[in-house]
C-alpha cells in the first residue's frame, strides 16, 4: 500500500483516470490518502478524512510513508481559516491555499504558514457563522472551495472547519446523526435533506433560525424552509422537497 498528500491548493478527483472524466470531489492542500491503484499517469486514492475514492493525476501529489500517514491520521486537523492564504516553500516561493486546507503536513512538505488557522471542535452556534464564509460561492458539482462548491461539499466543509466529520455525498450524510420529527425541533446548524421524485436524497442544506436555510443551489444562498421544503422567493416556488432533518451535533 502506498500513501500520498496533496501539496497544491486544490486538485480534481475524478470518476475515471482521464482529464475529461466527471469531477467527483476535490483534494485540498494537505489532504492525505491511501493509493489503492496506480497507473502510469493516474492513481486511484481513498481519502483519509471521508474514505471517498477517485482518480488523481500522479503529477499532483507527493508520496509519504505509511508511518507519516498514520501520524497524520491521529492528529486533530489544523485548517486554514482564510479564504485565500499562502504557504512558503524551502525556496521562499509562495503557493496559494484555500479555506479548509489542512496544515498538519507542513513539516513533511517543508512548508511554512503564518496565517489564521482553526483546530478542534467549535460550538454548534458557530456552524451558521462559518457557513456565511461561503455565501454567494458559485455552485460546482464536486467542488469544495469558496470558488466553487456543491451542496454536500458545502455542508462537509462547514462542519469540518468546526471539528466535525461528515461524509461526502448528501445521501451519505443523511445516514449520520439523529432524525428529528418536525422543523420546530431543529436548531441552527442542523441539516435538512431533500429527495427527488424517486425518493433518492440529492440535496442538503444548513438550517438557520426563523425557518431559513443556507444551501448551495446555483450559488450558496439563503432561502425559506417550511414543511414542504425549500421555498425560493425569487422564483416564487418550492425548489426542493423536504425528506428528513438530522441533528449531527
Biggest pleated-sheet summary: 6 strands, antiparallel, barrel
List unreliable stretches of 5+ residues: none
Average pLDDT metric: 96
| Lateral strand order in the biggest sheet | 15-16-17-18-19-20
Q: Helix and strand string, N-terminal first? A: EEEEEEEHEEEHEHEEHHEEEEEEE
> What's the total helix number?
5
Oligomerization status of the protein chains: single chain
Describe this structure in words.
The protein has helices spanning 66-74, 106-109, 126-131, 151-161, 170-173, and strands at 2-5, 10-14, 23-28, 32-38, 42-47, 53-57, 62-64, 78-80, 84-88, 94-98, 117-119, 144-145, 148-149, 178-180, 191-195, 201-207, 212-217, 219-225, 229-232, 237-247. The protein has 249 residues and is mostly beta strands. It has a six-stranded antiparallel β-barrel with strand order 15-16-17-18-19-20. It has a five-stranded antiparallel β-sheet with strand order 6-5-4-1-7. A hairpin with a 3-residue loop joins strand 18 and strand 19. The two termini are 35 Å apart.
